[in-house]
Amino acid sequence: MVNSKSTVCAIVVSVMFTIGAMSGAAEAVVEVNMGGSSSSTPFASEVPLSLCNAAPLPVHYVNGPIPSSGTVSITSGKLHTWVCQRTVGGVTEDIIVRYSATGSSDGIKKLQQPETDPLSNMNFLDHVAAVGCVGPTLKTRPSDGKQYNEFTGCAGATLADATNPLPLNIGWSDVRGSSFHQTGPITNTVTPLDQFALISTQVAIVPFAIVVGNGVYRIDPATNTTLGSVQNLSRPQVESLLSRQVTDWRRLGLGTAPVGSPVGTAADATSPVTLCLRTAGSGTKAALDETVMVTATEIALGSTNLTNAADGVYFGTSNQDVRDCIQGNAGAGRPAHPKGVGYMEGDQASLMTGGYIVPLDGFLSYDPSLPIADRKRDLFCGKFTYWVAGQMLTRNVSSPDADTARLIQDLIYTSTNPPTIDILPAGAFWAAPGSMNVFKNADKGPILLKSLPMPYAGC
To answer: With bands split at pLDDT 50, 70 and 90, how would you rate the model's confidence at 22?
Structure first.
């Protein structure tokens, strides 16, 4: 659909399809909609490029801030749409693959409904109708040299201008449905989800991270001055923070000071803790509940208003919201909380500029100080415990349309193929299940050793 809202984004996609039609090569347009886990965004939003194997160059569209009722309802980077051509069995087809990052529970709940039921719908980026797209920018994936054109900032005056409600075909979830039993904020509760009727495929080992704002420091108790960044948080300390048993960093021997303070700076007289949490339904939250919050429960009282600058407890619907809560996002009207603590998917946490990853019980899922081959040592060896095996889910049967079902299967195969993890940027943090020396049969654990020989020899 091309209308007065259409921008250069629509022109590019129109040209692509025209070229295919003129050449006589394109036989069909096949569309697949993926969504759910926001932790999986860096992975899921890159996988479609691996299927694009025919000219012209693939085009990647990424949303900008999309408002609803005067506020930003979808922040930048949550919606992705790929438009390209691929040749399969000598037939060239146009494909459109979309991803909508909300929460892992959506990756299960939406698939529990038939495709024809509106309850199966999620909001996906309408790359034709969206305005404000900036680009195209020619980009190259460093790992394999594959090129594509990218448009960013695609949005609209309202949610309806920039998105289409479409049925979910592939759900992404960090955790199994049985791991959902959280509350937060207080009026938002999820109960275990039955995924028995769905087909689940393990994708990769997904590690998470505990992050703190750049205003949190180690403190010299004798002088009450800063000693540098926080070097460790134990699991019980994380529990005490996230359950709100500890509301001031000083009770943990830590403190706060202005961002960028050199060693020796006087610490603040009070160091209140801001919590940047996920809403119930988040796989990141469920994974935390299963693996870290062993003897305490994460607090359920707080606000979803991320435009509030006060110290307190805030809930976001995505990893991006936790990032914004800690480091701020001026474009969305969200102030920074440099005294904050939160949790995120490891790869996305590593990209933060207003906060940093803190080892959990002395271990990191990815340690950049080690040689490349050993950087996931603590994850491979089972010493770092905040991880789960992420999954892709489909209905059984995945789609009544044969072409759509084939594309769904190809996306799943590509995503679960071990070399894919090494190709994609998120692969620096994620791990193929076969590369782990440990495994667990449930998200909670226990973590068990595999039989000899071990895949990784560095433990």
So the answer is: very low
Tally of residues, the chain: 459
For residue 274, give the amino acid letter.
Answer: T
Rounded (10°) CA dihedral 411, 414, 420, 424: -20
DSSP state, residue 396: S
Euclidean distance between CA atoms 95 and 333, whole angstroms:
36
CB-CB contact of 210 with 358 (8 Å): yes
Q: Which residues of 297-311 are buried (b: 16+ CB within 10 A; e: fewer)?
A: ebbbebeeebeeeeb
Q: What is the pLDDT of residues 104-161, one digit of tens each?
A: 999 999 999 999 999 999 999 999 999 999 999 999 998 889 999 999 999 988 888 8
Per-residue pLDDT tens over the stretch 372-396:
999 999 999 999 999 999 999 999 9
Residues with Cβ within 8 Å of residue 416, at least 6 apart in sequence: 201, 202, 203, 204, 392
- Distance separating alpha carbons of residues 108 and 194, to the nearest angstrom: 8
Specify the pLDDT at position 204: 94
Residue 236: both structure tokens together: 């019980």
Looking at the DSSP bridge assignments, the partners of residue 151 are: 61
Residues 273-293: pLDDT tens digits? 999 999 999 999 999 999 999
Q: Using CA atoms in the order 304, 310, 313, 317, what is the torsion angle rounded to 10 degrees? A: 30
Alpha-carbon span 61 to 420, nearest angstrom? 21
Closest residue by Cα to residue 273 from 237, 228, 305, 297: 237
Q: Give the separation between CA 1 and CA 10, rounded to whole angstroms.
A: 9
CB atoms within 10 A of CB 69: 7
Q: Cα–Cα distance between 386 and 430 in angstroms, integer?
A: 12
Residue 246 CB-density burial (10 A; 0-12 exposed, 13-18 middle, 19+ buried): middle
Strands (E), 75-198: 79-88, 91-101, 121-125, 134-140, 147-154, 163-167, 170-173
Strand partners, 43: none
Spell out the domain ranges in the chain: 8-173+397-428
| Residue 34, strand partner residues | 99, 170
DSSP 267: P
